[in-house]
Amino acid sequence: MTPIGASALAQWPIVAAETILFGTTAFEVALAPRDPGARSPLVAELAPLWRLLAAILVLAAPVALVVEVAAMADAPWRAALAYLPEVLRETHAGRVWGCRLVVIAAVAVVAFGFAGRDRAPLPLCALAATLILLGSIASHAGDWSRAMVAVDAVHQAAAGLWAGALLALCHGEIFSDRDPAARWIHRAATRVSATAAGAVGVLVASGAILALRALGYDSSRLLYSAYGRALIMKIGLFMGVVAIGGYNRYCLVPNVAEPSARRLLVRLVAVECVFIIGVFGLAAMLANTPPAH
After folding, report:
1. In this structure, is residue 39 part of a structural domain?
2. Which of 257, 280, 14 is nearest to 158 (CA)?
3. Angle at the Cα of 172 (from 166 to 175), degrees rounded to 5?
4. CA separation (Å) from 264 to 221, 251, 258, 259, 291?
5. What is the domain extent for residue 143?
6. What global pTM score does this model have?
7. 266 lies in a domain?
8. Mind listing the pLDDT tens digit for each residue in 82-140?
9. Is 293 part of a structural domain of the chain?
């Protein structure tokens, strides 16, 4: 496997976990219905997912760090371990990694110690947002300008809110069995649909800015560079997700009170989530591929 492929594979779980953690906690904090009888069970339902995401971060972060150090030192993974203290102490990437490890440790403490409590989603959301920002600082955008770092962070946050809201909706489907009128799922689906539409707009705008900067404002580099070809694959998969989301928004959400439409909606949302995780993988690939410009 090439160094770029190894780095992308190591970063994929981290990108997916931190963005989904941000999205699911943001959904619970800002979008979930406020019914006391529904909201607390939703926290309990999502708590195992938050613990799983925290465990993924704890396990994947050291591996990704070692892989990155090995690529920097052009050395085997085992030999790279000797360079870890120097990299963490004396390089920009190492200092950012040090901050990320501290935040990941805090995520683990909150997730495993307090995730089932009603107040846990807010600190988890803030910690996940911090991880997204640190990832943007360490990305190509960090080499360009602070404005590009902000654009990249907004791009990742929008993707996380979209994916997290969809996953939370799948978890929330449990309330359709407890509420014969399906009031919870009806209101949540409407909010998730509106959120997804807004997130798509933000993703398209911010993604276009980042792509133009990475391609050096030369569209021919889409075909004649590794970065451009990876970007095409990401855009293609993203458009597939948008197509499913559009069908959900305009065909199923208006009829979500009907059991058949509700069941189909949840199934398609699950498929949409799988596609989005694939998009995260391609995003990790882009983050480890030298820009065409």
Report:
1. yes
2. 280
3. 150
4. 40, 11, 10, 9, 40
5. 3-287
6. 0.86
7. yes
8. 888 888 888 888 899 999 999 999 999 999 988 667 778 899 999 999 999 999 998 88
9. no
